[in-house]
Design brief:
By secondary structure, this protein is of the alpha+beta class. The protein contains three helices and four strands; from the N terminus they run βαββααβ. The protein has one domain: Alpha-Beta Plaits. Helix 1 runs antiparallel to helix 3.
Length: 107
């Protein structure tokens, strides 16, 4: 590594499913999504976990993905590879999907 190398700031996507409207569609989404996440450099930190709410309401299942940076996250979300899964999610489940910037790693 050279002195001019800059650390990228990681980004995170958090999905919380509140209701499954189409179980077969949700299953298909869960099959289609992981390969696209991997293709774009994402790494699941949490996958299919049942959240426990310390405050407020929790969904029935959650996932957290770490991405190299926010640009990569947005590129994945808008990609042709993720589009079929994204279309399924729109009708198969009621969910919240949020994108968060991480903290720049210390040099």
């Amino acid at each position: 590594m050279s002195d001019t190398t800059t650390a990228r700031t990681p980004a995170y996507s958090i999905t919380e499913v509140f209701e499954v409207l189409d179980p077969a569609g949700a299953q298909r989404y869960s099959e289609l999504t992981p390969p696209t996440v991997e293709q774009y450099g994402g790494r699941f930190l949490v996958l299919g976990a049942a959240p426990t709410a310390a405050e407020g309401d929790a969904g029935i299942v959650a996932a957290v993905v770490e991405w190299p940076d926010m640009e990569t996250l947005h590129t994945w979300y808008d990609s042709a590879e993720y589009a079929p899964a994204r279309a399924i999610a729109a009708t198969a489940m009621r969910r919240r999907l949020v994108f968060l910037p991480g903290i720049t790693p210390a040099a």
